[in-house]
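User: Predict the structure for this protein chain, please.
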Amino acid sequence: MFPLCLFFCCCCCCCSQRWETFYFKQDNFDAPDIANIAISSELYEEAFTIFKKYDVNVRAVEVLLDYIGSIDRAYEFAERSNEPEVWSKLAKAQLKNSMIKEAIDSYIKAADPTNFSEVISGAESLNKYEDLVKYLQMARQHSREPYIESELVFAFAKTDRLSDLEEFINVPNVAQIQTVGDRCYDDGLYEAAKILFNNISNYARLASVLVKLKEYQAAVDAARKANSTKIWKEVNFLCVEAKEFRLAQICGLHIVIHADELEGLINLYEGKGYFDELMQLLEAGLGLERAHMYVFYLVI
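Assistant: Here is the predicted structure, written as structure tokens:
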């Protein structure tokens, strides 16, 4: 074993090149051990040189990142060594420093999806969805996590890549379509939400989306499939707001059969001054078998 005292004598020489030449000529010492001793003595450049010389590349990049603190040099070193684990170490440091695009590029070069939760969180906080799509596409090739696939669907929506979104959900996947659809709706991504809710035949939510898109006829058709009083009321309200009275009446006829809903329906029309339209709705309701007696009273 190369005597450690000689190593330190070399390190203390006024010219660092002389000690490098000295110990690199030795054959009977453990390079990583010497490099670790250099680190403990705060001789970081020397430690890096030893690790680099003997191709201990992961430790070398750790010295650059953890002790020397140079991400730029670490990037140059990663390009030269081009080892997946080196890229991963660099990516983690870049992510910690909010270098989202750079971190994603490094993770892709490493083909490493293990840190996906932090990558997603960082990319979303900085609205880096274009870069996130690339990362998640790589991650999905290595891990079929519902969270990864769900975030990929949402990233497609955020980047308006609706054809990619539709293609993705029409093949086997483990994405949480309902949850992503709700997120899209809350974010005002109605076209994406429409595709998602239609994919899982959630007609109640689909009807809500369609009225936001002002596709009133389609919203009424979806409400008919959902057959929910709550949805009929929602679509009716928005059709009245849009002065789509024919469609509003279709919805209203599914509401007048419920006595506890009549007052709200009447207040909606009267509050906007649509008395004629209200009477037309109530008169149409007379022909319904389940029409409440109050309807008869109002019309008469």
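The chain has three domains: 29-111, 113-200, 202-300.
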